[in-house]
Write a structure and sequence with these properties.
Blueprint (H helix, E strand, L loop, with lengths): L9 E7 L5 H14 L4 E6 L9 E3 L5 E3 L1 E3 L3 H6 L5 E4 L8 H11 L3 E7 L11 H7 L2 E5 L1 E2 L6 E2 L1 E4 L15 E4 L11
Parallel strand pairs: 1-7, 1-8, 2-5, 2-6, 6-7
Antiparallel strand pairs: 3-4, 9-10, 11-12
Bound molecules: zinc ion (ZN).
């Protein structure tokens, strides 16, 4: 990112499959903002309880302190004094996360949002499509297919659970490329 707005806020979205490094990238950006002495705050939905309740943790164990919220509206109040606002696992929020992000950006804040663009069925996940359309800056990250080593954009569920959300992921999902991904609808 070489050119960013002056005296104005914006929205950055980091999306991709599981294991594509979204949280790692979010943490990298937030660390740099903290080094630049910018007040930062990180949020994630209460549904995601893996590893750590009060931190966001990437698969490679990098972590930063985060606030658990039940609804997007809680973010507006808690983020009042921050100039950089990060939101991880955004796919789990309801659609009102979009207006919250737009409000924060209009207040002059930099908003960094990370989330799964599609679920294990390959279907757009929650509010992510709207967030991706609203983004001033959008990065779609790819994982590596565990079957063939190609870039992977799909999240393969390896268990038989059928809910959209299954907590405790690591052993239940794999990154797959377009060729190796098997849609659950085809089985
Ligand atoms: Zn593959």
């Amino acid at each position: 990112m070489t050119l960013t707005p002056k005296d104005a806020g914006w929205i950055e979205v980091i999306c991709g499959s599981m294991f594509s490094g979204k949280t790692e990238e979010l943490i990298r950006r937030l660390r740099r903002a903290q080094i630049a002495q910018m007040p930062t705050i990180i949020f994630k939905p209460r549904i995601d309880s893996r590893y750590s309740e009060t931190h966001i943790v990437s698969h490679n164990k990098m972590k930063l302190e985060s606030h658990l919220v039940n609804t997007p509206q809680e973010i507006l109040h808690l983020a009042e004094n921050a100039s950089v606002v990060a939101i991880d696992e955004a796919q789990f929020f309801n659609d009102s996360i979009l207006d919250v992000c737009k409000t924060l950006a209009r207040q002059g804040k930099r908003v960094v949002v990370a989330g799964l663009d599609t679920d294990y069925r390959g279907v757009p996940f929650g509010p992510m499509p709207q967030l991706m359309c609203e983004a001033d800056y959008l990065d779609k990250l790819r994982a590596i297919c565990v079957q063939c080593g190609n870039p992977a954009t799909y999240t393969q569920r390896t268990s038989n659970d059928t809910g959209q959300v299954v907590i405790g992921e690591l052993d239940k999902y794999e990154a797959r490329c377009r060729n190796c991904y098997q849609s659950p609808e085809d089985e």
